[in-house]
Predict the structure.
Amino acid sequence: MDTTYKRLLEILGKKRTGYFVLFDPDNYARDKVGEHAALAEKSGVDAILVGGSLLFDNHFNDFIKKVKEYTRLPVIIFPGSSRQISAYADAILFLSLISGRNSNYLIGEQVIAAPIIRALKLEPISTGYVLVESGNTTTVEYLSGTRPIPRNKIEIAVAHALAAEYLGMKMLYFEAGSGAEFSVPTEMIQAVSEQTRLPIIVGGGIRTPEEAHKKAEAGASFVVTGNVLERKHDPGLLRAFSDAVHKS
């Protein structure tokens, strides 16, 4: 059976690292999202993530439908809560915030979401979500009420990654958070990639193509950018990020 997860693994088989862009519905006008989705595909992006920590407007379904109209890329939900579910997406990252100890984000939101995902026949991709200290308090850190892993505690990050693997999760998502001052350290990415077999998604605080390239070189399976592209709306910058990630 051809699944979105299988497509992601095929990307890794063809390229050392894949490139995702994150669309936050609160930061995109609906009349512009189709244009940006088409541009992402044209620029060499491998998949589009949709989601955010908050959701101020009740148009999540319409937003994903619009993205799907303009691209053949996989559209994957990166949910901030159990409210962010849509049958129009190809898959959803079924996140468990394993770096925190707040049971609501370890299993509570997941229990609420699971029957809905099953009813919609939406493909879940079990993912261990790891917050990393970023130099300031990010939105997801504040809302989840959890402390991120300290930047210099590489061994703690590795232990969490191994726990996710042994629990049967399919992917890891190491996140500095939206608006992060510092991105996930390359030393942490390298250590985790050497100690676990799981694909590693890395996002948050990546502001330049050069920095994205370093994450790929360190061992990231997929690099994610979001805020920098929302602010600048530069078609050339999107291509520059894609090229930087893919040449690793």
Observations:
- Strands lie at 18-23, 47-50, 75-77, 91-97, 123-131, 171-175, 200-203, 222-225.
- The mean pLDDT is 94.
- The first strand starts at residue 18 and ends at 23.
